[in-house]
Each structure stands twice: as structure tokens, then as C-alpha cells.
Amino acid sequence: MSETQQLYLVTGGCGQLGTFIVDLLLKEKKKIRVLDLKKHPNDNIESIVGNVCIFQDVLKACKNVNTVFHTAAIVDESNKKLLHDVNVNGTKNVIKACKELGVKKLIFTSSFDVVMEGKKPMVNGTEELPYPKKYLDHGYSNSKREAEQEVIKANSASLATCILRPSGIYGPHDKYHLPPLLELVKKGKGIRIGNGKAKFSHAFSGNVAHAHVLASKHLEPNSKLAGQCYFIAEGDTGNLFDHLGEIMELLGYQQPTKSVPFWLVYAIGWICDIFRIKSNITRFSVVVTSIDRTVSFERARKDFGYEPIYDKEAAMKITANWFKEQGLGKNN
């Protein structure tokens, strides 16, 4: 199969990251197929509506495919079983289909959360960091760790696999980070947690997508990338609330200035966790916004030449413009 005839599958191709991967592949005139719970809006792309939890859907999607970008996942902590079904069993289905149908490459999207124990800061973390013995969250980090281990185990002479661990992703189609804060700001309840000194590694979804496509070009059996994990971030690090606040200002809102002590919000998170109260405030969410969480992408730079292709200003504008299109700007 020649390079121009190779078929690329993007699971979760309608999501925050998958959308950008599809766009990059389109620019390179690749043949693309998307597997997602909904139809891809571009009619020129082969779109399979299906679920990674259903093996036959995955098998259908992987037919005649050379490279799979497996981005489909859920973050919702409220349903631990669903987290495991999608993030772990869904990944197992992708691996099984790849093996049965002779797919050559699998690039799996993980998260830098897999090495975050939850209480201790991580400064300029590298891929040598071990998995923690226990996670503070309810299941997301552990589900990604389990999936990673399956992908590493699947690496072979016939199926080359690698794992990318993005830092905090932001950009269009974000459902988990900016929208909840926007809702609070609209109600006059926007707050910041902690003293504002904690640093956080960010990664625009367009840059993370670029890393995926770049990795696919260098991934081969027995290559440096095969069976390896890579952090994907950007050079800029800053406080998470400052970062989100800059996007909010582009949307016409004023950044929250009221700061609530860490210990107080952590206590609320502890209560929510212990009594299983559904809330955006959990011990994990409080801790990870209030302690240092930075990683180095030097290994990705060295092994497959990754460098961000969007600078911060451009990424912020693209993100804000998308939210405005969704009617979330102050003047909408």
C-alpha cells in the first residue's frame, strides 16, 4: 500500500483533539476514516457512527486501515464503570482489531495525569516518572494507566505502538475546563483557588494533534518511538486560573479575582468525595489546580522533532473565537 493510499482512522474524530488531527490529515491529503458516537460534519470524510466499547464497530472501522489514532475517551468521574469500559475496554477493542486486521501503527492518546499521584507537585516531569501506587481521583487516571499498559504490551514487529501524554489540553470543543468556570463567572460566582503561584503545563489541541501526526510519521517497528511514552506540552507555563482567565477576557468577561484558600475548597472536595456528592469540586480537582504540574517535552523534541506550531496568542484567539461561535461570548 503506497503512502498516498494509506487509510488513517481517528477514533473520537469529532472531539477536541480528534477534530484537529482530522484537519491536519486533510491538509496533507490523506485518506481518513472517523469512528465517533456522531457523524463527522465533513461529508468528504468517511464517518462511522459507532462505539469503541462495541468490538464489531471497532472492527468495521479498522478494516483496511494502516494507522490508528485512538483519541476516543471520557473524563467524567461520576461513572467509574463507564470510565473503565470506554478508556480501558475500548482500548483493548482497538488493539484486538488492529491485530486481527493487520493495522501497522497505533498512536494512543493518554494524559500526563497517569503519573500524578495527586498530592505531590510535579515540576518539569519526565517520562521516567513511575506510575503512582494510588491516585486521588475516582478513576480517570487509573483508567488511562491501564490503557497505556495494554498499548505498551501490544507493541510488536507487526503492530508498532506509542503513547502521547498531553498536558492540560485547551482549545475548541472543550467540555471540561473552561465551560464550568464560565458558568460560574456568568452567575457572579467565579473564584480562584489557592495563592496563584502554582504552575501548570498547557497544550493547545492543535499542537497536540501536530504531535500525533508527526509521531505517526516516525513510528515504525523497532524505532525509537515503538512502545514508548511521550509528554506533549508547550514552552509556556503559568497558573491555571491566569491561563483560563486570559481566554475569558477575549470572550469579554473579567477574570475572577476572588481567591478562596486551598484548605477550605479541599475540605469541600473531601466531603463531596466521601459522600459521593456529584460536583466539579473534588479533592483531585482542587489539588491539581493548586499545585505545580509541569512536564518537559524534550524527549518528543529529540525523538520525532516535536515543536508547537501554534504560539500562545494564536491558540488563545482560535479558542476564544470558537466559544464565541457557540454563543458563549459576553456579547452573544
What does this structure look like?
By secondary structure, the chain is α/β, with parallel strands linked by helices. It has a domain at 3-173 and 203-235 and 295-315: NAD(P)-binding Rossmann-like Domain (Rossmann fold, 3-Layer(aba) Sandwich), CATH 3.40.50.720. It contains 11 helices and 14 strands. It has a 7-stranded parallel beta sheet, with helices on both faces. Strands 8-10-12 form a 3-stranded mixed beta sheet. Helix 3 (80-101) links the parallel strand 4 (67-70) and strand 5. It starts with 6 loop residues before the first strand and ends in a 7-residue tail after the last helix. The mean pLDDT is 93.
In the CATH hierarchy, the architecture of the domain at 3-173 and 203-235 and 295-315 is: 3-Layer(aba) Sandwich
Range of helix content = 25-40%
Estimated structural class: alpha/beta
Shape, please? globular
Mean pLDDT: 93
CATH topology of the domain at 3-173 and 203-235 and 295-315: Rossmann fold
CATH class placement of the domain at 3-173 and 203-235 and 295-315: Alpha Beta
How many strands? 14
Q: How is the main sheet built?
A: 7 strands, parallel
Q: Going across the major beta sheet, what is the strand order?
A: 3-2-1-4-5-7-11
From the alpha carbons, calculate the radius of gyration and give it in angstroms. Answer: 19 Å
User: What is the rounded distance between the termini?
Assistant: 49 Å
Proportion of strand residues: 15-25%
Please provide the ordered H/E string of secondary-structure elements: EHEEHEHEEHEEHEEHEEHEHHEHH
Give the CATH H-level superfamily of the domain at 3-173 and 203-235 and 295-315. NAD(P)-binding Rossmann-like Domain
